[in-house]
Amino acid sequence: MHDFLAQDQIFVTVDILIMTVREGRLNLLLSRRANPPYPGRWALPGRLVATDEAAEAAVDRLLEEMLPVRGAFCEQLYTFTDVDRDPRGRVVSIAYLVIVPWARLAAIPEGQFGGLRRFGVALDAVGLRLTGEDGAALTGGELAFDHGRIIATGVQRLRGKIEYTDIAFRFLNDPSAFYLSELQSVFEAVLDKPVDGSNFRRAIQSRYEDTGLIAQRAPSEQAPKRRGRPAALYRLNQP
Amino acid sequence: MHDFLAQDQIFVTVDILIMTVREGRLNLLLSRRANPPYPGRWALPGRLVATDEAAEAAVDRLLEEMLPVRGAFCEQLYTFTDVDRDPRGRVVSIAYLVIVPWARLAAIPEGQFGGLRRFGVALDAVGLRLTGEDGAALTGGELAFDHGRIIATGVQRLRGKIEYTDIAFRFLNDPSAFYLSELQSVFEAVLDKPVDGSNFRRAIQSRYEDTGLIAQRAPSEQAPKRRGRPAALYRLNQP
DNA sequence: CCAAAAGTGTTGGTCGTACACCCATGC
DNA sequence: GCATGGGTGTACGACCAACACTTTTGG
Question: How remote is the C-alpha of A3 from its chain's centroid?
Fold first, then answer.
């Protein structure tokens, strides 16, 4: 990256929120900054947009460089343009929401993780709190740049969209074989509140099973034995 | 504006969708391009973002230069980054939704209208159709740049947000004195479909009157006599 | 070894709210 | 003719309760 940027132009970057659901909790990947500004602080992965690529292409390139993950869900979140948001100069950031199932991240060898670290995300009226794997907690204000604000915007958007889109399926480890309880757990993690299983089941079935987007798999295909009553396996069809 | 842009950098512009509701129909202001590219075509008002201003400031400045209107509602819509969206060079556009009540636009003298013209907006499964004051119709593809796509995105966003935000009040000519039927007309114009008056009334009253956001004005303040049963005047309180 | 407990998945009901659709009344 | 209000049926979420099937636990 640049240490000093030209004074007379605006630079365009993309910053990405790589989100996943792990053990019933929304998680996010951050990288620790090595260089100024904000050395040592945690930040969203980002990069400059080249003059010959669309922002989405820059996001793809950034993802490729960091993680051996392809075809992740990606959606533009918001564009942040405050004049002083980067002390190096004038940098406009287009933030993108990226969703990767946790199983795909967990399968990545340590060395190919692009220096990223996982943080639990909690956003309420008080503010944003992030919890690292080692239990270290930090608030949105302790991140580099305005990235705390960007993350808060992303979580709110996610919470809104999970209600009226099928974005929740993007968090499933295996869309071709999942339990409704897993999907419910995604909702609970994103919304950060319990969801009534009875209504959830009815809503999902009428919204998605009746329309053919998901289908119950044959009972012959048994799942690994867990505790309790065996759950019905579902399969996501099209998207 | 520039005719030729530097090759080695990305320019950032704002484009604004100035929307209003007039006679039960959603309307939008466009300006006719005088210079290449797309000379003679209709386009959204836009301008470059200066290196020392946030995008919102650029929107304010653009509005000030064109219309004698202050304090209009303004919200970021989406950022368009396709590499070839502007033949002059690499231009990223941050689109903003601006809402101005029709009465404020109608009160502007001809000479201070910034060369803008009003178009009725119709968006359905077929596509986007715009109808000028002279009855001339054009489709989204006949606009300059990717502005047809931008407008379609804006209308869709508006339709989504009118359901779960109080954005509809921004269209009211006089928020301190309006009829519920006027508000209903805003909904019908934006959604482009009839709204049941009975349910609308109940929904608005439970959502906004019970919470104090709107209040019925004293019956003593009479409205100008119109046809039919006199309507109750309402007042918007806070925002 | 067997029976009870506990955990998980699944189905059912009720209640209140909200909307679609229609109709009645006030002025 | 327009504004306002009521009524019925349907859909859905909150909340609660029951049942099905399994593993775990404890005597």
Answer: 28
| Contact criterion met (CB < 8 Å) for A56 and B81 | yes
Residue B7 has pLDDT above 80, yes or no: no
Which residues, 6 or more positions from A49, have their beta carbon under 8 angstroms from its beta carbon?
Answer: A12, A13, A14, A55, A58, A94, B10, B81, B92
Tell me what pLDDT residue A101 has. Answer: 97
What is the residue whose two structure tokens read 């005719």? B3
B90 touches chain A (CB under 8 A): yes
Nearest beta carbon to residue A10 from set B7, B8, B49: B49
Q: Amino acid identity, residue A231? A: A
Average confidence (pLDDT) over A66-70: 93
| Residue A44: closest CA among A74, A23, A13, A75 | A13
The two tokens of residue A67 are 């993680």
The protein side of the strand D contact, defined by CB less than 7 Å from any of its atoms, consists of A 195-199, 202-203, 206-207, 225-230; B 179-181, 197-199, 201, 226-232
- Number of neighbours of residue A68 by Cβ within 10 angstroms: 13
Integer Cα distance of A50 and A69 in angstroms: 22
Average of pLDDT values for A53-80?
A: 96
Q: Are strands B233-236 and B214-216 parallel, antiparallel or unpaired?
A: antiparallel
- d(CA A65, CA A217) in angstroms, rounded, equals 37
A12 CB within 8 Å of a chain B CB? yes
DSSP strand pairing (A42-43 vs A46-48) = unpaired
**CB proximity B53 to A under 8 Å:** yes
Distance CA A227, CA A221 (A): 17
Domains along the sequence of chain A with CATH: 10-161 (3.90.79.10), 167-236 (1.10.10.10)
Does nucleic acid strand C have an atom less than 7 angstroms from the CB of B230? yes
Whether the ω angle into residue A36 lies within 30 degrees of 0, i.e. cis, is: no
Radius of gyration of chain B, Cα coordinates, nearest whole angstrom: 19
At position B21, the amino acid (one-letter code) is V
- pLDDT at A221 > cutoff 90: no
For residue B223, the model assigns a pLDDT of 65
Cβ of A193 near strand C (under 7 Å)? The reply is no
Q: CA–CA distance from A193 to each of A162, A167, A186, A188, A203 (Å)?
A: 13, 18, 11, 5, 17
Which of A11, A76, A81 lies closest to B55 in CB terms?
Answer: A81
User: Which amino acid appears at position A199 of this protein?
Assistant: N
Task: Using the predicted structure, report yes or no on whether residue B72 has a pLDDT greater than 60.
Answer: yes
Q: How confident is the model at residue B1 (pLDDT cuts 50, 70, 90)?
A: very low
pLDDT at A36 > cutoff 90: no
